[in-house]
Amino acid sequence: MQAKEYLKIENATNLSRSEVGRLGTAVIFIVLVMIYTGNSFAHIEQAYLLVGAAVIGAYMAINIGANDVANNVGPAVGSFALSLTGAIAIAAIFEAGGAIIAGGDVVATVKKGIIDPASINDANVFVWVMMGALLGAAIWLNAATWLGAPVSTTHSIVGGVMGAGIAAAGWDIVNWNSMAKIALSWVVSPITGGIIAAAFLFTLKKLVFFKDNPIDAAKRVVPIMLAIMAWAFTTYIILKGISKIVKVGFPTAVIAGLVVAFLTWMLVAPMIRRAAPRLSADRDGVNRLFTLPLILSAALLSFAHGANDVANAVGPLAGVVDVLTEGEGGAKVAIPLWVMAIGALGISVGLALFGPKLIRTVGTEITELDRARAFCIALSAAITVIIASQLGMPISSTHVALGAVFGVGFLREYLEQRVSRVVETVLASHEGQPDFVKAEEVLRTFQNAPPEDKKRLLDQLKKMGPEAVISAAQRKELRKALKRQLVKRSALLKIVSAWIITVPISAMLAALFYFTLRGIMLP
Q: What contacts 106, CB < 8 A, 6 or more positions away?
């Protein structure tokens, strides 16, 4: 056997062992959930249903951690502000903290009024609907993670509840107005996130990166940008996390955010002035100023995500617990601490075991990210969620974050293509001159330069006058180089396709599982 073939087999074997290890750890977690639930509720009449619901809830939580958390830490990892291991550790801690501390004492088990629980009079049918919804959503999330497509866990559970509800009580059970709002958010949230992220990045380029001395410009602009970030994240955390512990209105959250923003500006402005002499006077030097803010944003986004999206895993489970232990069930139920713990730990386990694949997708496979771009993405996610919350629009943080990533990438493409048109115009005006050796040397550097450096090189070409000459064939090659795609189109197609089918696929799977459970349980 050749050495190369042996190495291939060895690598495949190591990969297989790694996969088995991850699956084994996930199974151990689910088994522990099964043992705990079985021992704690052995006295109730239908303990087996409660155990089954808890297992499915744990499986759903693992898949949320594997798929959805990547949006919070992916940009920080892709920009090298955080290592993959560090990002997983921070996200796991803050996801669990957000779920347990601010997960809420009361949560809608039927997400966002998708179905009317009053239409389901039979307690057993209600339990089967919730279990079918959880299982359908979890299976779809598992498949999406395997395919490398970040999708909305909220929309997955919405589709699951809708599909199982229709299977149990017909089409009239669905609140179609709510479904229309969710469908609208598929378009509005990623576009809004993309526009806001692109606007912040363009502002940074215009006011900092395109300047002759970016560090001097950064000393004035970056403290203001960080103050805006402090306002956005303070308001975001209050509205999406703290308000679940202590009721806080929107005006109070905004005022608190402004206070924190002012204090942030007062603190970081002198720090940046002191650090400036030690930074290189280029893009890398400016990017270093965003390292700590990116780490903090990853932690805060993870906390808010845990506080909100844990309900996707344990909301339906809480409904099942309420029905089987209290004999009730309805639109809202109190969530026991042990149920919250299953959601929090499950999200952390899923992130640690299976999250790296989606973190890499968000951070590196869509478009190239540096720390300034990642900063704009995180800031856009927070601001978009704040706006949507006040408009009452049910948006997905996944759609917002990925829309911001695409927005940053397409802005880069636009700026490069705009510069290319200017270059062609300048060079065409010098066509016919005999000497183009010096121009060729500049253009070779130009082709590989980032957009902000292209402006400086363009100024050099203008100063060269008649010597700045290239042939028509060279201009054609330059145009092709400048119009390269900076957003991976295959990633765009895969992710958007997955978004479109999330609700219907989850709904069909949930309906299938509901009928299966019903067939098993009926005498």
A: 332, 333, 334, 335
C-beta of residue 414 within 8 angstroms of C-beta of residue 198: no
**Cα 364 from chain centroid?**
13
Q: How far is CA 304 from CA 62, 110, 226, 284, 514, in A?
A: 18, 21, 19, 30, 32
Phi/psi at 107 (5° precision): -140, 150
Contact indicator for 266, 329 with CB cutoff of 8 Å: no
271-330 pLDDT per residue, tens: 999 988 888 888 888 888 898 888 988 888 888 778 777 777 777 888 788 788 776 555
Residue for token digits 């943080």?
A: 397
What's the helix, strand, coil split of the chain in %, to 5?
Answer: 80, 0, 15
Q: What is the CA radius of gyration of the chain?
A: 26
Strand partners, 108: 332
Report strand pairing: 106-108 vs 332-334. Answer: antiparallel
Q: Is 148 helix (H, G, I), strand (E, B) or coil?
A: coil
Query: Which pTM was predicted?
Result: 0.79
